[in-house]
Write a structure and sequence with these properties.
The chain is mostly helical. The protein contains 28 helices and two strands. It is elongated and about 90 Å long.
Length: 427
Protein backbone atom coordinates (compact mmCIF):
# COMPACT_ATOMS: atom_id res chain seq x y z
CA UNK A 1 0.00 0.00 0.00
CA UNK A 2 2.66 2.53 1.04
CA UNK A 3 4.83 1.59 -1.94
CA UNK A 4 2.00 2.40 -4.36
CA UNK A 5 1.38 5.76 -2.68
CA UNK A 6 5.04 6.73 -3.06
CA UNK A 7 4.96 5.65 -6.70
CA UNK A 8 1.86 7.73 -7.41
CA UNK A 9 3.53 10.75 -5.78
CA UNK A 10 6.48 10.35 -8.14
CA UNK A 11 4.13 10.03 -11.11
CA UNK A 12 2.52 13.35 -10.12
CA UNK A 13 5.95 15.01 -10.03
CA UNK A 14 6.88 13.58 -13.43
CA UNK A 15 3.56 14.79 -14.87
CA UNK A 16 4.38 18.29 -13.60
CA UNK A 17 7.74 18.21 -15.43
CA UNK A 18 6.14 16.95 -18.65
CA UNK A 19 3.14 19.28 -18.30
CA UNK A 20 0.63 16.46 -18.68
CA UNK A 21 -2.23 15.09 -16.63
CA UNK A 22 -0.99 12.49 -14.09
CA UNK A 23 -3.73 10.15 -15.33
CA UNK A 24 -1.83 9.87 -18.62
CA UNK A 25 1.11 8.33 -16.75
CA UNK A 26 -0.76 5.82 -14.61
CA UNK A 27 0.72 3.00 -16.70
CA UNK A 28 3.91 3.65 -14.69
CA UNK A 29 2.21 2.60 -11.43
CA UNK A 30 3.89 -0.82 -11.56
CA UNK A 31 7.35 0.76 -11.57
CA UNK A 32 9.40 1.52 -8.43
CA UNK A 33 9.20 5.10 -7.20
CA UNK A 34 12.99 5.35 -7.34
CA UNK A 35 13.04 4.45 -11.04
CA UNK A 36 10.43 7.11 -11.85
CA UNK A 37 12.40 9.71 -9.91
CA UNK A 38 15.59 8.83 -11.79
CA UNK A 39 13.77 9.20 -15.10
CA UNK A 40 12.25 12.51 -13.97
CA UNK A 41 15.69 13.86 -13.09
CA UNK A 42 16.97 12.83 -16.53
CA UNK A 43 14.03 14.56 -18.25
CA UNK A 44 14.56 17.72 -16.19
CA UNK A 45 18.25 17.79 -17.06
CA UNK A 46 17.51 17.29 -20.74
CA UNK A 47 14.86 20.01 -20.86
CA UNK A 48 17.05 22.44 -18.95
CA UNK A 49 20.09 21.66 -21.10
CA UNK A 50 18.27 22.57 -24.28
CA UNK A 51 17.62 26.12 -23.04
CA UNK A 52 20.96 26.90 -21.40
CA UNK A 53 22.19 29.29 -24.11
CA UNK A 54 18.81 31.04 -24.42
CA UNK A 55 18.56 31.46 -20.63
CA UNK A 56 22.08 32.90 -20.50
CA UNK A 57 21.17 35.46 -23.15
CA UNK A 58 17.99 36.46 -21.30
CA UNK A 59 19.93 36.65 -18.03
CA UNK A 60 22.53 38.90 -19.67
CA UNK A 61 19.78 41.21 -20.87
CA UNK A 62 18.22 41.30 -17.40
CA UNK A 63 21.51 42.62 -16.01
CA UNK A 64 21.31 45.70 -18.25
CA UNK A 65 18.03 47.11 -16.94
CA UNK A 66 17.04 48.48 -13.51
CA UNK A 67 15.46 46.00 -11.09
CA UNK A 68 11.93 47.45 -11.19
CA UNK A 69 11.92 47.31 -15.00
CA UNK A 70 13.38 43.78 -14.94
CA UNK A 71 10.56 42.75 -12.60
CA UNK A 72 7.96 44.31 -14.90
CA UNK A 73 9.48 42.52 -17.91
CA UNK A 74 9.48 39.23 -15.99
CA UNK A 75 5.83 39.53 -15.00
CA UNK A 76 4.38 41.03 -18.20
CA UNK A 77 6.64 39.62 -20.93
CA UNK A 78 8.52 36.54 -19.79
CA UNK A 79 5.78 34.92 -17.71
CA UNK A 80 6.23 32.49 -14.79
CA UNK A 81 7.74 29.61 -16.79
CA UNK A 82 10.53 31.65 -18.42
CA UNK A 83 11.12 33.63 -15.23
CA UNK A 84 11.65 30.39 -13.31
CA UNK A 85 14.07 29.15 -15.95
CA UNK A 86 16.04 32.40 -15.95
CA UNK A 87 16.28 32.48 -12.14
CA UNK A 88 19.05 29.87 -12.16
CA UNK A 89 21.10 31.83 -14.70
CA UNK A 90 20.94 35.26 -13.02
CA UNK A 91 23.33 36.24 -10.24
CA UNK A 92 21.49 35.11 -7.05
CA UNK A 93 21.50 38.46 -5.25
CA UNK A 94 20.04 40.22 -8.32
CA UNK A 95 17.47 37.47 -8.87
CA UNK A 96 16.21 37.95 -5.30
CA UNK A 97 16.24 41.73 -5.66
CA UNK A 98 14.07 41.48 -8.79
CA UNK A 99 11.75 38.99 -7.06
CA UNK A 100 11.10 41.50 -4.27
CA UNK A 101 9.26 43.64 -6.83
CA UNK A 102 7.03 40.76 -7.97
CA UNK A 103 3.67 39.80 -6.49
CA UNK A 104 3.44 36.72 -4.24
CA UNK A 105 1.00 35.18 -6.71
CA UNK A 106 3.44 35.53 -9.63
CA UNK A 107 6.30 34.19 -7.48
CA UNK A 108 4.13 31.21 -6.56
CA UNK A 109 3.40 30.59 -10.26
CA UNK A 110 7.13 30.71 -11.01
CA UNK A 111 7.98 28.58 -8.01
CA UNK A 112 5.85 25.77 -9.41
CA UNK A 113 8.33 25.51 -12.31
CA UNK A 114 11.52 26.36 -10.42
CA UNK A 115 14.30 23.74 -10.52
CA UNK A 116 15.69 23.57 -6.96
CA UNK A 117 18.98 22.09 -8.18
CA UNK A 118 19.69 25.06 -10.49
CA UNK A 119 18.27 27.74 -8.24
CA UNK A 120 19.61 26.55 -4.88
CA UNK A 121 21.62 29.72 -4.29
CA UNK A 122 18.62 31.89 -5.08
CA UNK A 123 16.39 29.90 -2.73
CA UNK A 124 18.98 30.20 0.04
CA UNK A 125 18.87 34.01 -0.24
CA UNK A 126 15.08 34.39 -0.21
CA UNK A 127 14.01 36.80 2.57
CA UNK A 128 11.84 35.30 5.29
CA UNK A 129 8.90 37.58 4.52
CA UNK A 130 8.94 36.58 0.85
CA UNK A 131 9.13 32.89 1.74
CA UNK A 132 6.16 33.26 4.09
CA UNK A 133 4.05 35.00 1.44
CA UNK A 134 4.84 32.45 -1.28
CA UNK A 135 4.15 29.60 1.16
CA UNK A 136 0.82 31.18 2.03
CA UNK A 137 -0.22 31.26 -1.63
CA UNK A 138 0.91 27.70 -2.33
CA UNK A 139 -0.89 26.40 0.76
CA UNK A 140 -4.08 28.24 -0.20
CA UNK A 141 -3.83 26.49 -3.58
CA UNK A 142 -3.15 23.14 -1.95
CA UNK A 143 0.03 22.84 -4.01
CA UNK A 144 1.87 20.50 -1.63
CA UNK A 145 3.80 18.98 -4.53
CA UNK A 146 5.67 22.24 -5.14
CA UNK A 147 6.27 22.87 -1.45
CA UNK A 148 7.57 19.35 -0.92
CA UNK A 149 9.80 19.61 -3.98
CA UNK A 150 11.43 22.82 -2.75
CA UNK A 151 11.49 22.22 1.01
CA UNK A 152 14.64 20.13 0.83
CA UNK A 153 16.54 23.01 -0.79
CA UNK A 154 15.36 25.60 1.73
CA UNK A 155 17.59 26.62 4.64
CA UNK A 156 15.98 26.29 8.06
CA UNK A 157 15.49 30.04 8.35
CA UNK A 158 13.26 29.99 5.27
CA UNK A 159 11.34 26.96 6.55
CA UNK A 160 10.81 28.61 9.93
CA UNK A 161 9.33 31.61 8.13
CA UNK A 162 7.02 29.44 6.02
CA UNK A 163 5.82 27.03 8.74
CA UNK A 164 3.43 29.45 10.50
CA UNK A 165 1.47 29.63 7.24
CA UNK A 166 0.81 25.88 7.37
CA UNK A 167 -1.93 24.14 9.34
CA UNK A 168 -1.24 20.73 10.85
CA UNK A 169 -2.84 19.00 7.86
CA UNK A 170 -0.62 21.02 5.51
CA UNK A 171 2.59 19.93 7.25
CA UNK A 172 1.57 16.29 6.87
CA UNK A 173 0.93 16.73 3.15
CA UNK A 174 4.19 18.59 2.57
CA UNK A 175 6.04 15.77 4.31
CA UNK A 176 4.46 13.24 1.98
CA UNK A 177 5.55 15.22 -1.09
CA UNK A 178 9.13 15.96 -0.11
CA UNK A 179 11.52 15.63 -3.01
CA UNK A 180 14.08 13.97 -0.76
CA UNK A 181 12.37 11.72 1.79
CA UNK A 182 15.35 12.07 4.14
CA UNK A 183 14.23 15.69 4.61
CA UNK A 184 11.10 14.41 6.36
CA UNK A 185 13.13 13.97 9.53
CA UNK A 186 14.39 17.54 9.36
CA UNK A 187 10.88 18.85 8.86
CA UNK A 188 9.40 16.77 11.68
CA UNK A 189 12.25 17.78 13.95
CA UNK A 190 11.23 21.41 13.42
CA UNK A 191 7.56 20.78 14.21
CA UNK A 192 7.81 18.41 17.16
CA UNK A 193 5.42 20.56 19.18
CA UNK A 194 2.82 20.25 16.42
CA UNK A 195 2.91 16.46 16.04
CA UNK A 196 0.04 15.93 18.56
CA UNK A 197 -2.06 18.31 16.47
CA UNK A 198 -1.07 16.43 13.32
CA UNK A 199 -2.14 13.16 14.95
CA UNK A 200 -5.49 14.64 15.97
CA UNK A 201 -5.97 15.90 12.41
CA UNK A 202 -5.12 12.51 10.94
CA UNK A 203 -7.86 10.99 13.08
CA UNK A 204 -10.48 13.71 12.62
CA UNK A 205 -10.01 13.90 8.85
CA UNK A 206 -9.40 10.16 8.36
CA UNK A 207 -5.89 10.77 7.04
CA UNK A 208 -4.36 7.68 8.63
CA UNK A 209 -3.32 6.34 5.23
CA UNK A 210 -1.21 9.47 4.73
CA UNK A 211 0.28 9.10 8.20
CA UNK A 212 1.23 5.48 7.49
CA UNK A 213 2.93 6.54 4.26
CA UNK A 214 4.90 9.16 6.19
CA UNK A 215 5.98 6.55 8.74
CA UNK A 216 7.30 4.52 5.86
CA UNK A 217 9.77 7.18 4.72
CA UNK A 218 11.17 8.61 7.94
CA UNK A 219 14.01 7.19 10.01
CA UNK A 220 13.71 5.11 13.20
CA UNK A 221 14.11 8.01 15.66
CA UNK A 222 11.37 10.23 14.18
CA UNK A 223 9.19 7.19 13.47
CA UNK A 224 9.41 6.08 17.10
CA UNK A 225 8.69 9.62 18.31
CA UNK A 226 5.55 9.82 16.19
CA UNK A 227 4.49 6.33 17.27
CA UNK A 228 4.94 7.23 20.94
CA UNK A 229 2.79 10.32 20.50
CA UNK A 230 0.09 8.23 18.81
CA UNK A 231 0.30 5.66 21.61
CA UNK A 232 -0.35 8.41 24.15
CA UNK A 233 -3.63 9.41 22.49
CA UNK A 234 -7.08 8.30 23.54
CA UNK A 235 -8.08 4.69 22.88
CA UNK A 236 -10.41 5.80 20.10
CA UNK A 237 -7.57 7.42 18.16
CA UNK A 238 -5.19 4.49 18.60
CA UNK A 239 -7.91 2.04 17.60
CA UNK A 240 -8.62 4.15 14.53
CA UNK A 241 -5.02 3.86 13.41
CA UNK A 242 -4.82 0.11 13.94
CA UNK A 243 -8.14 -0.46 12.18
CA UNK A 244 -6.88 1.39 9.10
CA UNK A 245 -3.53 -0.42 9.19
CA UNK A 246 -5.38 -3.74 9.22
CA UNK A 247 -7.77 -2.65 6.45
CA UNK A 248 -4.90 -1.45 4.25
CA UNK A 249 -2.68 -4.37 5.19
CA UNK A 250 0.04 -1.85 6.03
CA UNK A 251 1.74 -3.78 8.83
CA UNK A 252 5.00 -3.55 6.88
CA UNK A 253 5.01 0.19 7.63
CA UNK A 254 3.94 -0.11 11.28
CA UNK A 255 6.04 -3.11 12.37
CA UNK A 256 9.43 -1.36 12.13
CA UNK A 257 8.15 1.13 14.71
CA UNK A 258 8.04 -1.63 17.33
CA UNK A 259 11.82 -1.83 17.35
CA UNK A 260 12.08 1.69 18.79
CA UNK A 261 8.77 2.52 20.44
CA UNK A 262 8.69 2.97 24.22
CA UNK A 263 7.63 0.17 26.57
CA UNK A 264 4.49 2.09 27.48
CA UNK A 265 3.62 2.42 23.81
CA UNK A 266 4.17 -1.28 23.20
CA UNK A 267 1.96 -2.17 26.15
CA UNK A 268 -0.88 0.00 24.88
CA UNK A 269 -0.48 -1.38 21.37
CA UNK A 270 -0.65 -4.95 22.63
CA UNK A 271 -3.84 -4.26 24.58
CA UNK A 272 -5.92 -2.88 21.74
CA UNK A 273 -8.83 -5.01 20.44
CA UNK A 274 -7.42 -5.28 16.91
CA UNK A 275 -4.32 -6.96 18.33
CA UNK A 276 -6.47 -9.67 19.90
CA UNK A 277 -7.90 -10.82 16.60
CA UNK A 278 -6.27 -14.18 15.67
CA UNK A 279 -6.54 -13.40 11.95
CA UNK A 280 -4.79 -10.06 12.46
CA UNK A 281 -2.02 -11.66 14.52
CA UNK A 282 -1.56 -14.34 11.88
CA UNK A 283 -1.25 -11.66 9.19
CA UNK A 284 1.18 -9.61 11.27
CA UNK A 285 3.28 -12.73 11.77
CA UNK A 286 3.13 -13.62 8.10
CA UNK A 287 4.35 -10.18 7.05
CA UNK A 288 7.12 -10.24 9.64
CA UNK A 289 8.37 -13.54 8.20
CA UNK A 290 7.96 -12.82 4.50
CA UNK A 291 9.20 -9.21 4.51
CA UNK A 292 12.25 -9.57 6.73
CA UNK A 293 10.54 -7.92 9.71
CA UNK A 294 10.84 -10.82 12.15
CA UNK A 295 13.22 -8.91 14.40
CA UNK A 296 10.92 -5.88 14.29
CA UNK A 297 8.02 -7.97 15.64
CA UNK A 298 9.88 -9.39 18.64
CA UNK A 299 9.88 -6.25 20.88
CA UNK A 300 6.08 -6.43 20.90
CA UNK A 301 5.88 -10.11 21.89
CA UNK A 302 6.64 -9.80 25.65
CA UNK A 303 3.70 -7.43 26.02
CA UNK A 304 1.20 -9.87 24.48
CA UNK A 305 -0.85 -12.25 26.58
CA UNK A 306 -0.67 -16.04 26.24
CA UNK A 307 -3.39 -16.32 23.62
CA UNK A 308 -1.81 -13.57 21.50
CA UNK A 309 1.62 -15.17 21.73
CA UNK A 310 0.17 -18.55 20.84
CA UNK A 311 -1.46 -17.09 17.71
CA UNK A 312 1.90 -15.71 16.57
CA UNK A 313 3.77 -18.87 17.50
CA UNK A 314 1.31 -20.99 15.51
CA UNK A 315 2.19 -19.07 12.34
CA UNK A 316 5.92 -19.09 13.06
CA UNK A 317 5.88 -22.83 13.72
CA UNK A 318 4.30 -23.40 10.32
CA UNK A 319 7.79 -22.80 8.89
CA UNK A 320 9.90 -25.85 8.08
CA UNK A 321 12.75 -26.87 10.38
CA UNK A 322 15.46 -25.12 8.37
CA UNK A 323 13.55 -21.84 8.31
CA UNK A 324 12.63 -22.10 11.98
CA UNK A 325 16.24 -22.77 12.89
CA UNK A 326 17.29 -19.68 10.97
CA UNK A 327 14.63 -17.56 12.67
CA UNK A 328 15.80 -18.67 16.10
CA UNK A 329 19.45 -18.01 15.35
CA UNK A 330 18.72 -14.63 13.75
CA UNK A 331 16.92 -13.64 16.94
CA UNK A 332 19.62 -15.02 19.28
CA UNK A 333 19.96 -11.74 21.24
CA UNK A 334 16.20 -11.97 21.88
CA UNK A 335 16.38 -15.58 23.13
CA UNK A 336 14.49 -14.74 26.36
CA UNK A 337 11.55 -13.77 24.14
CA UNK A 338 11.97 -16.29 21.33
CA UNK A 339 12.40 -19.47 23.37
CA UNK A 340 9.15 -19.12 25.40
CA UNK A 341 7.34 -18.05 22.22
CA UNK A 342 8.53 -21.12 20.32
CA UNK A 343 7.46 -23.35 23.21
CA UNK A 344 4.03 -21.75 23.72
CA UNK A 345 2.17 -24.23 21.48
CA UNK A 346 1.94 -27.54 23.42
CA UNK A 347 1.51 -29.78 20.37
CA UNK A 348 4.67 -28.35 18.79
CA UNK A 349 6.93 -28.59 21.86
CA UNK A 350 8.52 -31.96 21.05
CA UNK A 351 9.54 -30.68 17.62
CA UNK A 352 10.86 -27.38 18.96
CA UNK A 353 12.75 -28.99 21.85
CA UNK A 354 14.36 -31.50 19.52
CA UNK A 355 15.33 -28.69 17.12
CA UNK A 356 16.80 -26.60 19.95
CA UNK A 357 18.65 -29.53 21.46
CA UNK A 358 20.26 -30.24 18.07
CA UNK A 359 21.57 -26.71 17.66
CA UNK A 360 25.35 -26.43 18.06
CA UNK A 361 24.65 -22.86 19.19
CA UNK A 362 22.26 -23.89 21.99
CA UNK A 363 24.72 -22.98 24.74
CA UNK A 364 25.08 -19.48 23.23
CA UNK A 365 21.30 -19.06 23.14
CA UNK A 366 20.96 -20.13 26.74
CA UNK A 367 23.78 -17.84 27.81
CA UNK A 368 21.60 -14.89 26.77
CA UNK A 369 19.17 -15.75 29.59
CA UNK A 370 19.79 -13.51 32.59
CA UNK A 371 18.51 -13.42 36.17
CA UNK A 372 15.92 -10.80 35.24
CA UNK A 373 14.30 -12.92 32.52
CA UNK A 374 11.69 -14.25 34.93
CA UNK A 375 9.09 -15.23 32.34
CA UNK A 376 11.56 -17.27 30.31
CA UNK A 377 12.84 -19.14 33.37
CA UNK A 378 9.28 -19.82 34.59
CA UNK A 379 8.35 -21.26 31.19
CA UNK A 380 11.39 -23.52 31.11
CA UNK A 381 10.89 -24.70 34.70
CA UNK A 382 7.35 -25.86 33.90
CA UNK A 383 8.78 -27.88 31.00
CA UNK A 384 11.52 -29.64 32.95
CA UNK A 385 10.00 -33.12 32.40
CA UNK A 386 9.98 -32.49 28.64
CA UNK A 387 13.49 -31.08 28.30
CA UNK A 388 16.18 -33.22 26.66
CA UNK A 389 19.18 -34.02 28.87
CA UNK A 390 21.60 -31.66 27.11
CA UNK A 391 19.21 -28.72 27.23
CA UNK A 392 18.35 -29.30 30.88
CA UNK A 393 21.98 -29.56 31.96
CA UNK A 394 22.95 -26.39 30.07
CA UNK A 395 20.06 -24.58 31.77
CA UNK A 396 21.20 -25.84 35.17
CA UNK A 397 24.68 -24.43 34.59
CA UNK A 398 23.35 -21.13 33.27
CA UNK A 399 20.95 -20.71 36.20
CA UNK A 400 23.80 -21.31 38.63
CA UNK A 401 25.96 -18.72 36.84
CA UNK A 402 23.10 -16.25 37.19
CA UNK A 403 22.87 -16.87 40.92
CA UNK A 404 19.56 -18.71 40.55
CA UNK A 405 20.61 -21.59 42.77
CA UNK A 406 17.10 -22.89 43.44
CA UNK A 407 16.29 -22.91 39.74
CA UNK A 408 19.60 -24.59 38.97
CA UNK A 409 18.84 -27.36 41.45
CA UNK A 410 15.42 -27.88 39.90
CA UNK A 411 17.02 -28.46 36.50
CA UNK A 412 19.93 -30.51 37.83
CA UNK A 413 18.09 -32.70 40.28
CA UNK A 414 15.26 -33.78 38.03
CA UNK A 415 15.04 -37.54 37.76
CA UNK A 416 13.08 -39.01 34.90
CA UNK A 417 10.75 -41.83 35.88
CA UNK A 418 12.16 -45.25 35.12
CA UNK A 419 9.64 -47.41 33.27
CA UNK A 420 11.01 -50.46 35.14
CA UNK A 421 9.98 -48.84 38.42
CA UNK A 422 13.47 -47.72 39.47
CA UNK A 423 14.55 -44.13 39.79
CA UNK A 424 17.09 -43.09 37.16
CA UNK A 425 18.97 -39.93 38.12
CA UNK A 426 20.04 -37.87 35.13
CA UNK A 427 21.70 -35.03 36.99
Amino acid sequence: MTTLRHTMAEIAKLARVLDVDPAELEFLATQPASAIKTFRDQVSDELSGRDVVRMQRVAAAVKLVPKPIAALVAEKALGPALAAAVAGAVEPARAVAIAESLSPEFLADATVLLDPKRAAEVIARVPDTMAAEVARVLIERGDYLTMGRLAGAMPESVLWAALPQAADRDILQVGLHLEDSSQAERLLGMVTDRVPGMVATMYAEEKWADAISLLDIIGPAERARMADIVAEQEDEILDGLLTVVAALDAWDALLPVAADISLTGLQRLAQRPVMHDPATLARVSDISLTQNLWLALLPLVPHLDESQQRAIATRVLAEDDDSLRTLILDAAPEAPTVIPLALSVPDARPRVLALLDALPELDSLIDVLGPDHTEAWETLVTLIPELPDRTRKLLAVRAANCGLDVVSEMFGNYAAPDLSGRSNSRS
